[in-house]
Amino acid sequence: MVEKLAPSPLLEACVEKLEQAMLAEQCGAGRIELCANLEVGGLTPSRETIAAVKEKMKIPVRAIIRPRAGGFVYNENEIVEMEQAILFCKKTGLDGVVLGCLQTDRTVDIEKTRRLVNLASPMQVTFHKAIDETPNLLESLLILMGIKGVSAILTSGGEKTALEGKMVLRQMIKLAGNRLKIIAAGSITTKNLEKVQAEIGANEYHGRRIVF
């Protein structure tokens, strides 16, 4: 009996520029997360960059929707700015957007998250590493599983790196089941990807140096 090979995980490359996106695609990335200002964790890219990357890429592209650096508690003006960016991404034909909203107690802001997710439909929506700032990641996961339209969660299991957060990541993957994707992130590179996969066993991984 021939053993069935496990499917290769999807590798999402986090990039800032068109040239980086094109190189990532050539090197085997399965999806692009497009950001600006990665030195502060990634902000909403310019509309020109979004349009240029979408035009050139054959693989799916998701753009981060984050109006400023700092925390993830947003006022109404910032939410409106995020909505405008989401609408542009939808109009441009992106695969999805990446976002996250918290309340002042660092729990998931269900109302604002649902508002943005509903607007983004039918695009895919990833709830980003804001989840790593919440008090209980498994509780946060259950909350996000209850918000229709959230298709993935980007997380390092509440730790600085995916390997440090591997125990929680494995729990999250088991709890999420087929309901949504857990995208493991946090210092994952071409050099340690094999070890990370052996330790965590996710179907999707994310990083700036994940394919080159």
Structural notes for this entry:
This protein is of the alpha/beta class. α4 links the parallel β4 (96-99) and β5. It has seven helices and eight strands, in the order βαβαβαβαβαβαβαβ.
Shape: globular
Largest sheet: 8 strands, parallel, barrel
Number of E-type strands:
8
Radius of gyration, taken over Cα atoms and rounded to an integer in Å? 16 Å
CATH architecture identity: Alpha-Beta Barrel
Please outline what is shown here.
By secondary structure, the chain is α/β, with parallel strands linked by helices. It is built from 7 helices and 8 strands.
Structural descriptors:
212 residues, disordered N terminus, 35% helix, TIM Barrel, 8-stranded parallel barrel, alpha/beta, globular, 17% strand
Helices, strands, pairings?
Layout: E1 10-15, H1 18-26, E2 31-34, H2 47-56, E3 61-64, H3 76-92, E4 96-99, H4 110-120, E5 124-127, H5 137-145, E6 150-155, H6 166-176, E7 181-184, H7 193-200, E8 204-207
Parallel strand pairs: 1-2, 1-8, 2-3, 3-4, 4-5, 5-6, 6-7, 7-8
Helix pairs in contact: 2-3, 3-4, 5-6
